[in-house]
Structures are given as C-alpha cells and as structure tokens.
Design a protein that fits this description.
Helix content: 10-25%
Mean pLDDT: 75
Radius of gyration: 26 Å
Low-confidence stretches: 22-34, 230-326
Distance between the termini: 79 Å
Structural class: alpha+beta
CATH topology of the largest domain: Ferric Hydroxamate Uptake Protein, Chain A, domain 1
CATH class of the largest domain: Mainly Beta
Largest sheet: 15 strands, mixed
Number of domains: 2
Shape: globular
C-alpha cells in the first residue's frame, strides 16, 4: 500500500473516531448512559417544552432523565415536569425554573428560582428560594416564588409554623401566616391536589375540587349567555346608562385627532386547559410591575374576552360595576395599551407569544372612553377590552382589596423575561396601588404598558 493510500485510511479512521467521540460526548451530556437508581432524582412526566441546562449546554427533554448536581430545569409557559424522588416528588409548573443542588433522594435539595413547585414529600426535601430556605417533610405544599413575594401553601402536614389550610407568605422578606380556602386554588394546584389525593387525602377532596370547577364553569357560561341575550326594551334603555368607547367628540393627543379604534384584532379566548395556569403570586404595584407584591392565597380567577366576562363573588370581593344602573353623568378619559418594550427584547420573548405582539407595539391606540362617576381604571380597561375584542384576564386579591391584571392580548407576566408584566400610569404617574382602587374623575390619560426590564424602569417608572 502506497503512502497516499495509508494517509487516506488514517484520515478516515480519525474522522470516524472524532464522530464517535462526539456522539459519546452528546450522549453523556444528555444522560443517555446514566442508569436510574432508586435513590437518585429522575425527571419524568414531561408535558410541553421543558429544557435541561447541563455542562454549559441546553436541550429539550422528552423522557426520563437522571438528574445531576448543577442541572438547571426550565419550563415553558405552557409546560410542567415532575422530579421523581422515589418516595415523593416535586412538580414544576408553567414558567418555573429550578436548579438541582443535591439529586440524591436521601437529602435531596434544589433551588426554585421562579414559578410554582408542588411538593409531595415523605422524606425531607430542602428548598432554597430568593435567599430563603425551607424543609418539607411528610407534607404536601406549593411553593410559589415571584419577585418580591414568596409563599408556601400547605395541604397536609406542617411546614415550619404553617399547618394544612394555611399559607406562609414572605412580603419584602417578612413572613406572615394566614388561612386560605379552596377558592384560592388555580388550575395547576387543582390538578396536583387531585394527583396527590390518590396517594393520601389532602385538605381538599376531589368533590371539593369538582364543585369549585363546576361553579367557575357556570359563571363563565352565565356571562356568555347574558352577552348573547336579546336587546333590552326601549323602556329599559330609558333608565339605563351603558358607558361606551368613543363618542361624538373625537379624542385628541398633542393637538392631533385620534381615531376611536382603527386597530383590528382577531378575537381570542385564552385556553382553560391545564397548560394555561394562572399564577398565584402576581403583584399589584405600579412603581414595580404587578408581579412583585401580590399574595397567592384567598384568590379567585376571572376572565373577560370579546365573548363575555366571568365573575365570582367568592373570597369576599365586590361585584363588578353594574353598567345597567340608573343614569349618571358621563365622564371620559383616554386609554391606550402598548407593549413597545417587547420589540427591544424579542430574544427573551416566549416564541408562542410572538403572534400577539403588534409590529408597532400598539395593542390599542389612544381612544376616548366614557365612564360614569365612581368608576375606576380597572372598570374602563375591562370595558374597552371587551368592546374592542382584546383578550383580558384578571384576578381578585382580597388582601389588597384590588384586581390584578394577569394578561392583555394573551401577553402575560414572564412572557418576556423574569421581570416582565403589565403596569399602568395615569397622567404620566405610576400609582402605587391597584387599578381597581384608582377612581377616575374625568380628563385623565390612562396608559397600560408592558415592562420587560428593571421592574418598570424601561417604561418610565421611578423608585
């Protein structure tokens, strides 16, 4: 064999060896050669898009994966995954992020960076979050971690000084224990409690959960039926004042006339499937985005769309304003909804939410909105969204006596980074209280804006 042939043969062998080593390397990183052991945590029950960050690489997982120390787990906005510990488990909810500290079942520990984690523990499970630590043993609970507020809701057993039916909440670092009811549960926790009930009874039975979900479904159906009911009689109209968007006088901005609603949207209704769980700890603050100070317990969920508005009076919240009450003098303000900041942070935007971001960042241009005396920023937002076919989801917070805006036009908190969410300002000022506590008097300029960075600094909020 001549030298050229030998050189070619050696080159082929080297190429094959390099390729083989590459396959082995990828297989090692992805854990293809790991052998699951009973005492080692395993990633299972993957639903939606779940990514694993390991050894400087990130990849999507689809099946069982043996976890290692330092592994990072990231759930997409519509995903969840279970960390099986053999005699217990942790389920990470939508948009949750965690880092494994010790993967061994005996002494398992992890850091919950953001989002919700349902814990069903027999042996001790140590969790770190926002500079704090807690241990859950022989108990079932949900740990919820957001910027500025964290909570642990207990469903059986005891966690620190909270028993079943109680929540420990850290607001700005200070713990507080208080009770909660079944009405505070979101869809993620309802599903997890059902699963855990199959192993041992928790504080809420499956019958309790069935009644809760049935009541919520009836509320939505009733509202939709009311929206589809025949028009009221002329006599009823004489005694009824229904605030509307627009009016005989066009709104102006900087001396220019603006239209009532030139922006055309496809009407959308947010899915109520398990992949669309509302968060339980979003905040109601406007010097910071709403994601920072809101507690999780004693909470109900509500939704308004072009098809109607779901309402509930559980949890002690007031009825929504009755727009069919006797006539009152009409006032007006201007309203606009914008998400310009997302255009500068597209690399952090959830790809599934890209269709909901207008090219110019304007969801609703400046329009004139009429209202009656005593109505709030929340009342006007709900009305203009319903009349313009813009999806809106919100929830009631009994602790603060205010509504929290979860999503507008299918854009929610954390959809564009860990500091993202909705804020509002009136006449250029960001109030430090909820939108349903701000009573309008007429002539205001209301702007709803989506913040991505600095907890509001990118939209002009100052601390």
């Amino acid at each position: 064999m001549n030298k050229k042939a030998i050189a070619n043969t050696v080159m082929v062998i080297l190429i094959i060896a390099i390729a083989f080593c590459g396959v082995l390397g990828v297989g090692y990183i992805k854990g293809r050669f790991d052998k699951p052991e009973k005492e080692t945590a395993v990633l299972t029950d993957v639903r939606g898009v779940v990514s694993l960050k390991r050894s400087g690489a990130a990849y999507t997982v689809s099946g069982n994966t043996v976890l290692r120390s330092g592994d990072g787990i990231v759930c997409d906005s519509g995903a969840e995954v279970c960390v099986d510990l053999g005699d217990g488990y942790i389920t990470l909810g939508p948009s949750a992020q965690a880092k494994i500290i010790n993967p061994e079942s005996d002494g398992f520990s992890a850091q919950i960076i953001v989002g919700e984690a349902f814990v069903f523990a027999k042996s001790p499970i140590k969790l770190e979050f926002d500079g704090k630590r807690t241990q859950i043993s022989n108990a079932a609970a949900t740990l919820s971690v957001r910027k500025g507020t964290q909570s642990v809701s207990v469903y059986y057993g005891k966690v620190e000084n909270a028993e079943a039916g109680q929540t420990i909440e850290w607001l700005d670092g200070e713990p507080e224990v208080r009770s909660f009811t079944v009405n505070s549960l979101n869809e993620f926790n309802i599903a997890q409690i059902r699963k855990a009930n199959a192993e041992r009874p928790l504080i809420f039975t499956n019958d309790d959960l069935d009644r809760l979900q049935t009541d919520r479904l009836k509320e939505i159906q009733n509202e939709n039926a009311e929206q589809a009911s025949p028009a009221v009689s002329e006599k009823q109209l004489e005694n009824t004042s229904v605030p509307t968007v627009g009016g005989s006088e066009p709104a102006t901005e900087n001396g220019n006339t603006v239209g009532t609603n030139p922006f055309d949207f496809t009407k959308t209704v947010r899915s109520t499937e398990s992949s669309k769980y509302p968060s339980t700890t979003k905040a109601q603050s406007t010097v910071r985005p709403q994601v920072t100070t809101k507690p999780s317990a004693e909470r109900t969920y509500e939704r308004t769309t072009a098809l109607g508005t779901a309402q509930s009076n559980v949890g002690g919240k007031p009825d929504s304003p009755d727009v069919t009450q006797s006539a009152k003098p009409k006032l007006s303000c201007t309203v606009t909804i914008r998400c310009d900041t997302i255009l500068n942070n597209l690399n952090e935007l959830d790809p599934a939410k890209a269709p909901y971001v207008p090219k110019n960042g304007c969801i609703l241009p400046v329009i004139k909105a009429e209202f009656t005396e005593g109505e709030t920023v929340f009342d006007v937002l709900k009305r203009v969204c319903g009349q313009n076919g813009i999806q809106l989801e919100y929830s009631w917070t009994p602790m603060y006596g205010s509504y929290y805006i979860e999503g507008i036009n299918n854009l929610y908190e954390f959809d564009c980074g860990s500091e993202s969410g909705w804020m509002y300002k009136v006449n250029g000022w960001f109030p430090n209280y909820g939108c349903s506590s701000y009573i309008l008097t007429g002539g205001e300029s209301v702007v709803w804006c989506y913040t991505c960075k600095g907890l509001g600094k990118d939209v002009g909020a100052e601390y």
